[in-house]
Write a structure and sequence with these properties.
Blueprint lengths: L5 E6 L12 H8 L7 E6 L2 H10 L6 E4 L17 H6 L4 E4 L2 H4 L5 H13 L3 E6 L3 H5 L3 H12 L9 E5 L13 H13 L7 E5 L7 H4 L7 E4 L6 H12 L1
Parallel strand pairs: 1-2, 1-8, 2-3, 3-4, 4-5, 5-6, 6-7, 7-8
The protein binds 1,3-dihydroxyacetonephosphate.
Length: 246
């Protein structure tokens, strides 16, 4: 159990439609109760729902974010994309950048760097995802991969207060697997050691659920969780928060 101020970020990926809005009532009620303790809830729904979520959360403290953005600050002929200013315009305050599901489709560290810069310029807070694949883990390359992702991803970015790091080992996403307690503690410590002046918030993501949260909450250098599958179920999402603090 922890007493820390913790972030619980729901990444809905490509799930959800207008009928999902009613499932948020429970979460809104929970967010206004004492049970939330030191938890901050943030939803990153698909772009099609950001505006509706934003209206729905008008009178509560739940934050909203996008799941990616284009690297350009200005409007342009980029079919199928939205930029950070557009996300901001419809009510987002956060954006996930560098998710492995996008890296695997060719999003490079360099492109991620440009996206982060444009998001910060638009005054969005960035949830910057990093993580190694199973193959890289087996070859004991976790640290070198994370180091490269951080170095290039944050190149020439001086003001880092609005950046959260989300450590998401690729092999843990959607697999039901989580890293061993000691391994995860050490990796988070390693990530924080890369920052000299002010330590960033480091979140963990990958198969977080109401069962394994009792293990994960004991890792005391983690500042929150980025939750995929379980976050689409209001009860599970609330349970994760409750159990973190119980
Ligand atoms: P799961 O929680 O479904 O494993 O997804 C994790 C994730 O990718 C969050 O960004």
């Amino acid at each position: 159990m922890t007493n820390k101020y913790m972030y619980f970020i729901a990444n809905w990926k490509m799930y959800g439609n207008l009928s999902s809005l009613k499932t948020l009532d429970k979460v809104i009620k929970f967010s206004k109760s004492k049970e939330i303790k030191g938890g901050r809830l943030i939803y990153c729904p698909p772009n099609t729902l950001i505006s509706s979520f934003s209206k729905k959360f008008k009178n509560c403290q739940i934050g909203i974010g996008g799941q990616n953005c284009h690297e350009s600050d200005v409007y342009g002929a980029h079919t199928g994309f939205v930029n950070s200013q557009m996300l901001k315009n419809i009510g987002a305050h956060f954006v996930i950048i560098g998710h492995s599901e996008n890296r695997v489709k060719g999003e490079s560290d360099k492109l991620i760097n440009l996206k982060i810069k444009s998001a910060l310029d638009a005054k969005l807070k960035v949830i910057f995802c990093i993580g190694e694949t199973l193959n890289e883990k087996k070859k004991k390359k976790t640290h070198s991969i994370l180091s490269r992702q951080i170095k290039i991803g944050l190149k020439n970015i001086k003001y880092k207060s609005n950046i959260f790091l989300a450590y998401e080992p690729v092999w843990a996403i959607g697999s039901g697997l989580i890293p061993k307690h000691q391994d995860l503690f050490k990796t988070v410590k390693y990530i924080k050691s890369k920052f000299k002046d002010k330590l960033p918030k480091v979140l963990y993501g990958g198969s977080v659920n109401p069962k394994n949260i009792t293990i994960l909450r004991e890792i005391n250098n983690i500042d929150g969780f980025l939750i995929g599958g379980a976050s689409q179920n209001a009860k599970k999402f609330i349970d994760i928060v409750k159990k973190t603090y119980s």
